[in-house]
Write a structure and sequence with these properties.
Helices cover about 40% and strands about 10% of the residues.
């Protein structure tokens, strides 16, 4: 049995146990994957400032995100098709997050439905919403999240058009998998995964199948989804959707200071600096490099969270020290879920909290809520020094 001491230790086991199409879905980006790589690589360009002869006793990683208590400033990001990574994956991850004391965010494109996860958990979770053309289904989805007691709505703004993800296209990614000869051959080698799927509660997109008349079987479902992402989404529609939700609203997919200011205008309780894990616009800035200009733009008027490239507690510490109120992990817990199920997610959270706690202490910090830029050595020009640009020229 492998000894798991860091997030990367999950990956070999994850790759052995999960079908290639779902491994590639998690471990890839769009086009050349530049942004996917730089999301992680740019964290390594930030250095931590070691301090000594400082009282390190009584440390705490606890805090709040959108006013909700958390054992560390980390949330599980929305990950589509999580129930294809492991049988009933959304339920397993949600229960692990609940027990650990961090938020779990259920994707619209989940295998287990809103109701499935609500029935399996005792505390509220967050729900991530894709804006779709079908207004009736959108309103129904929001109402279902309300009925399930979800404590925040996370609206994803950067998927009006799907980025070209070469590996997903080559693998014929779908739920359930498309049974090409190559897929069938690969699935035959994943017997443990297959046995788990035989006993899974669902194997289709639970928030959609059974709720949309034109998505009654897998082929209809995928065709319906392909027609639903809304290229006409604008800030006026975001504002209307925000009015449909009574609680906190988090807007995810912000990379530009102008968009951050617009998010303030529509009443966002938090924004997530995110490039969709490098799966949308390849060549966009990494999330950690985009963070500071966005913090400057909002001036503390709303919480700023971040996702993209976070694989360790040190990454969490760097994000918080740069000014983020919270950090989202997606791939880090997906590797663990695919490798070991719910216990793997718990172990991933333990690893991240331990790395955060130890690194915080060695930087002379005892409370994550007090951590600031003094913990870091930031390269000059890290957020970017670009040629002069005026938005008025773009039209």
């Amino acid at each position: 049995m492998a000894v798991i001491t860091c997030i990367d230790d999950f990956k070999p086991l994850y790759r052995r146990r999960v079908p290639k199409m779902f491994y590639d879905y998690a471990e890839s980006g769009s086009w050349s994957e530049q942004t996917f790589r730089e999301n992680s690589d740019d964290f390594a360009k930030l250095y931590l400032r070691q301090r000594v002869a400082v009282d390190m006793s009584g440390r705490s990683t606890a805090g709040t995100m959108i006013g909700q208590p958390v054992t560390m400033p980390v949330a599980l990001a929305p990950v589509g098709l999580l129930g294809m990574q492991h049988a009933d994956g959304e339920i397993a991850a949600a229960k692990a997050a609940e027990d650990f004391g961090v938020p779990f965010t259920l994707s619209t494109m989940s295998i287990n439905s809103i109701e499935d996860v609500a029935a399996a958990t005792a505390k509220p979770f967050w729900f991530q919403l894709y804006t779709m053309k079908d207004e009736g289904f959108l309103a129904e989805l929001i109402q279902r999240a309300k009925d399930a007691g979800c404590s925040a709505l996370v609206i994803t703004l950067d998927l009006q058009i799907v980025g070209q993800r070469h590996r997903d296209l080559k693998n014929g990614l779908s739920a359930p998998p498309k049974l090409t000869p190559a897929t069938m051959l690969n699935l035959l080698t994943k017997w443990r995964w297959g046995m788990g799927m035989l006993g899974a509660k669902r194997r289709h997109l639970g928030n959609i199948v059974g709720h949309v008349k034109d998505a009654g079987d897998p082929s209809q479902m995928m065709a319906w989804i392909g027609r639903q992402f809304d290229p006409t989404l604008d800030w006026a529609r975001v504002a209307r959707i925000r009015q449909m939700w009574d609680g906190p609203v988090i807007l995810k997919g912000i990379l530009d200071p102008e968009d951050a200011r617009m998010a303030l205008e529509v009443g966002a309780d938090a924004i997530v600096v995110s490039n969709h894990g490098g799966r949308q616009l390849d060549g966009a800035l990494s999330s950690i490099r985009a963070l500071q200009p966005i913090l400057d733009a909002v001036g503390g008027e709303t919480e700023v969270h971040i996702d993209g490239g976070i694989r360790s507690g040190q990454d969490v510490l760097k994000a918080v020290a740069m000014g983020a109120k919270g950090a989202y992990i997606g791939r880090a817990f997906t590797y663990a879920l695919g490798a070991m199920g719910g216990p793997g997610v718990t172990r991933a959270l333990e690893i991240i909290r331990n790395e955060l706690d130890v690194s915080m202490a060695l930087c002379g910090q005892r409370d994550i809520r007090a951590v600031g830029r003094e913990c870091l050595l930031v390269p000059e020009g890290f957020p970017g020094r670009w040629a002069d640009y005026s938005p008025s020229r773009s039209g």
